[in-house]
Amino acid sequence: MLGRGILRGLIETWRNFQGSYYDPERLTTVQYPEEKLPPQENARTIPFLIYDGQDPLAGLRCTACSICAVECPAHCIEIVKDTAKRPDYLGKMQFHPKVFNIDMAVCMECGICAEVCPFDSIKMDRVFELSGDDRRMVLRMSDLAKSNDYFRQIHPTEAAAVDAARAEEQRKAQAKKGASPVPAAS
Amino acid sequence: MNAVDQIFVSTQHWLAGLAPASVRPLVSMLLIIAGLMAAFGTCFALTTVLERKTLGRMQNRFGPNRVGPFGLFQPLADAIKMLTKEDIVPFSADKILHFLAPLALTVPVWLAFAVLPFGRNMSAIELDAGILFFFAIGSASELAVFMAGWSSQNKYSLVGAMRAIAQMISYEVPLVLAGVPVLMAAGSLSLPDIVQAQSGFALGFVPHWNVFTPWGLAGFALFLIAATAESNRCPFDLPEGESELIAGYLTEYSGFKYALFFLGEYLGLFAVTGLAVTLFLGGWQAPAQWLEWLPSWGWFAAKFSALIFLFIWVRATLPRLRLDQLLNFAWKFLVPLALINLFVAAVWWKFPAAMAIRWLLCAGLLAVPYVWLGRHWNGVTPKPRHYGYAE
Amino acid sequence: MPNEFAFYLIAAFTVVFAVAAMTLPRLVHCALCAAAAFAGLAMIYLQLDAEFVGFAQLLVYVGAIAILIVFAVLLTRGDEVRPGHSQSSPSWMAGVAVAVLALAVMAMAILLSPSLQRLAPSAPVAPVKKIGEELMTRYVLPLEMVGVLLTGALLGAVVIAMHEESEVKPPARWPASKRAESGEAMSLR
Fold first, then answer.
1. Of these four, A140, B89, B329, C171, which has the most CB atoms within 10 Å of its CB?
2. pLDDT value at position B15?
3. Residue A186 pLDDT more than 50?
4. Residue C81 has pLDDT above 60, yes or no
5. pLDDT band, residue B160 (cuts 50/70/90)
6. Whole-model pTM?
């Protein structure tokens, strides 16, 4: 029949129209900012520093090795090492950063810093509502430090893997300490 | 019942009676004009926002919903924006024509509302040749499109204006021809007479509206298609297609002049919809005896709103036609069908009303050319499609 | 009397736009002033209560013929004003003389005709229905002749347009499609 295509089109748009009042499939708008889509686990935006325990600056995993600053393609990480040392989760004495700044306006959120960090201390966050009124959005160590509980919340799978690996290493270190009572000179 | 039905007429008479006798006709006419402008101005504002919301719903999204409850104050925001925008006139533009073009578009369209019967006794002017006035005024607005396109001194505007004029004059022919069988049926060119000729009920419950006859249904469909094209609406909105010619003949207009073009286009749509309701849908008459509790202007408004919804629905559904497809469609499909419709209407009236055979005969006489023309008007007989690159 | 005042106003409007249509430098302006003069004529018809003729004048002249004139002006690029060339022709006095002569002849014919002595009828004697009936009975021959003339004009326009189209050669085909048709595999070399 002539005009059959037109009629089918009209029927489909009518279904869209009436369905938009009761069927969520027919009205898929998410009215941001009142409603937000649930974020995906693998989403990543800017990096952040993880601390264990309650004290943000004392529990920071970062040892100021500067691998992330060297590997960062945008050169947005600035690290100044503190001369004092602190024990890490395995008991070894490590440096820690005095200054750790990331210029988020420069950061391109590639995740290379998180990939290369040997201490699982810098990971990618999921916050995206970052607009500011300044061209330099420098986040300092106190802004970047977030707890491991937060990490578990936003990336549960990855956090579970990291926690398991760290627990395994801690167990191995305990076992070695138990086997040879004299610790090796470090 | 009658009081509510005639409430506008009696209010107008009362208010005019307050004026001295020497200026009473003038005051009475001014009251009608004020009423029409207020009513259709509000209608325009509501239509802009309701159209956007309806289009949104048909496209699985909300329409504007931030300004006011359900976004219904959006026209106010739009009006403020249009009024405060800078009015840019190109340096080499023809100043007088550039200024006059929006006026030349809007004024004839307002004039066209004068003959439409909005309710019982409610047409502003009762002309003996009402429908001819309507079409004459409609054709006068085409020069405004040319003025707009040419005075902008912009080749895109000029090409857009030429396309728009070609489209409008091509679709005037099926528009008028589709309305001629109605004149044959009513025996008069005056619109209140046409509405009156559609009164009464056949079989006790089917109203005598023209759309319930074979030639009326075909004429209605032809009229609506031609009306969509005359108002430059989708799927015939090539003149203002943003992806083709920026904004066509409207390119160099900003601010309030653009708002006037917009207003003129929508008012043209309202006028031709009102005419469609009058010619084919029985005007202000209720579809059944027991439904007459809604006053006559209420029925006109209901039918009018239904047709406007139909236009918005079609806009949401169909893609845009290309210019050559558009013009071929008008001249090779619509005009022959309109002429055949005229012939069929004459055949209809040849048979007395009691013979049911005339339904079948007229429907057949219309269906056969429709199918044949539909398959062959394009010059190419359609074959099953072969999608060569889909493998 | 309001009627005479209205007539003088409309007549002045028409004459002003007609003179403008002759004298304005840009041709498109002239065409639009001519359209305004046609509208003025329509208003005169309406003032004489000839509704059908008035609206038909608007529909045909302003709605179609003015657009035709405008298209003709644009398609033939007649809008360019040649510098140093006067707009009016050198023999304008002869033109004015002929126009005055024609006006004198028509005015004499009207003033001396007996229809001026008849009383004007009280009601308009040409409602649309009567015009239709007269067209179909008494004036059917002129109606059919005009129809034939218009059909001839339409056919002529179609013939002219078709003739131009047949001179255009079909575009050369892409070489790629020839290879595809002959079944060869399209290699990358």
1. B329
2. 86
3. no
4. no
5. confident
6. 0.84
B145 falls within a domain: yes
Q: Are strands A138-139 and A122-124 parallel, antiparallel or unpaired?
A: unpaired
User: Is A169 inside any structural domain?
Assistant: yes
Give tens-digit pLDDT for B25-40: 888 889 999 999 999 9
- Sequence-separated (6 or more) residues with CB below 8 Å from residue C30: C20, C21, C22, C24
C55:B132 CB<8 A = yes
In terms of CA atoms, which chain C residue is nearest residue B140? C63
Domain range for A170 = 47-124+131-177
Neighbours of chain C (3+ CB pairs under 8 A): B
**pLDDT confidence of C174, banded at 50, 70, 90?**
low
Question: ipTM value of the model?
Answer: 0.83
The terminus-to-terminus CA distance of chain C in angstroms comes to: 92
Q: Are residues B77 and B103 in the same domain?
A: no
Q: Do B204 and B60 share a structural domain?
A: no
Structure tokens at C24: 């304005």
Judged against a pLDDT cut of 60, whether residue B184 lies above it is answered with yes
Claim to verify: residue B28 and residue B100 sit in the same structural domain: no
Nearest Cα residue to B286 out of B199, B379, B186: B199
- A33 preceded by a cis bond (ω within 30 of 0): yes
Q: Residue C148: what pLDDT?
A: 96
C32: chain B residues, CB-CB within 8 Å: 97, 143, 147
| pLDDT tier at B138, thresholds 50, 70, 90 | confident
CA–CA separation, A113 vs C116, rounded Å? 104
The CATH number fitting domain C1-79, selected from 1.20.120.1200, 1.10.443.10, 3.40.30.10, 3.90.1150.10: 1.20.120.1200
- Residue B366, Cβ neighbours under 10 Å: how many? 20
Query: Which domain range does residue B196 map to?
Result: 90-376
Domains in chain C: boundaries: 1-79
Residue B58 is nearest to which of A3, A17, A31, comparing CB atoms?
A17
Tell me, yes or no, if B148 comes closer than 8 A to chain C by beta carbon. no
Q: Which of B66, B84, B102 is the last residue of a domain?
A: B84
Cβ of C52 and B133 within 8 Å?
A: no
Chain A interface mutation, best of B60, B70, B311, highest count of A Cβ atoms under 10 Å: B60
CB contacts, 8 Å: B58 with chain A:
13-14, 16-17, 20
Task: Identify whether the C-beta of residue B308 lies closer than 8 Å to the C-beta of residue B47.
Answer: yes
Cα distance from B140 to chain C (closest Cα, Å)? 5
Query: Do residues B20 and B166 share a domain?
Result: no
Closest CA to B171 of B146, B203, B204, B139: B139
Of B14, B49, B84, which residue is a domain's last?
B84
Q: What is the pLDDT of residues A30-59, one digit of tens each?
A: 888 888 888 888 899 999 999 988 888 888
Q: Per the structure, how many domains does chain A have?
A: 1
Identify the closest residue of chain C to B159 by CA–CA distance.
C74
Chain A nearest-CA residue for B369: A2
Mutate one of A7, A13, A34 to test the B interface: name it (highest B CB count within 10 A).
Answer: A13
